[in-house]
Request: fold
Amino acid sequence: MKFIHAADIHLDSPLAGLMRRDDVPAHVTQDPTRRAFSSLIDLAIAEDVAFVLIAGDLYDSNWRDFNTGLFFGREMRRLNRPCILIRGNHDASSVLTRHLQPPPSVTVLSARKAETLVLEAHGVAIHGQSFPNRAVTEDLSAAYPPPRPGLFNIGLLHTSAEDPGEHETYAPCRVASLAMKGYDYWALGHIHARRTLHERPWIVFPGNLQGRHVRETGAKGCALVEVRNGRVETVEHRAIDVLRWAHVAVDLNGAATAEEVALRLRFALAQAQGAAEGRPLFARVTLTGATAQHAAMLAEPDAIDAEARNAAAAAGTDVFVEQVRVLTRPPAAAAPDAEDQLAAVFQAALDDPDLLRDLLAELRSLANQVPPLPGRAPPDLPETEAALRALAPEAWQVVAHRLAGGGTACD
Ligand SMILES: [Mn+2]
Reply:
């Protein structure tokens, strides 16, 4: 027997951060939560699951109009299998004022107290309670009934568990308490990132069905669970999202020209799209590193924003830039090269009185040892500090020439 566990579908919620934009075809951003829900139903039919569980927040908030409910009803008739759901903080009974009678295959578990639905044909007992209102602060799972002996027991629960992350704390509970309950599988909802909190018994957040903004990155979908002989055989995450979000960091360190910036953008966006498994990808682009283009990008944010979209279009037909963040820095003041550093040391030596004294003494003794060259005047070696300083620039040129691989100092 197989079943699907989904949560946080937020049907008909809008995509955040994507205003009407010329560079994004309308069909890419149209009804993503509905299309993802339809692919969930496609998967359920293809895998021939026994039933589908929805662990809260099927709806984002009160329906804008009745079309949201009509769409759900159509998909449930197409599923033509039991769907058992609880309401979460977003679609608590008190939040929804519009109603339609669901098809008979759909069971919404009570908001008054925990109840149990037994699917005799599959040997399954499903325990759960809907949120009566948005702010449920107590541990609902504490009042869930004990497991039914001889059946495969599932707990359906909307909760922030022990760690709400960026989500609000609702119906918090201890993972250890859930594990002790005696159920075989806990189908949780509310946390939008996929998490497996425990195995044997399995305690799973499948994550939301479709990322709706740039904080919901990566593959989104549902858990496909296979049960054999009353035990969980496998829990697989299946991606069923219709578009993806990603953070793309582009290192512009050393990028000297606008052309180089565009090249690196295109490369990074093409790579990111490759990881999106054929889905359209929306990228939050963050530019980092020390680059000569830093000032230009800060001066004209519109231009770098457009260049990033341009690079996305060049990288592929299905990759788009949600936003560009410029976190670059100007190039460090040019580091002095080795020769400059040696010249500085050479010059600084003339400021050392001890060294000067030794040097002049040495030159004096040297003057007496150098044999006069035939036909030339004896070498005119510096005898004072001032003479040494006067000679220094020329002397350095000779040394530098030798260091650079030139001929002998006496050329
Ligand atoms: Mn929720």
Summary: The chain has three domains: 2-239, 244-326, 338-403. DSSP finds ten helices and 15 strands in the chain. The CA atoms of residues 82 and 310 lie 47 Å apart.
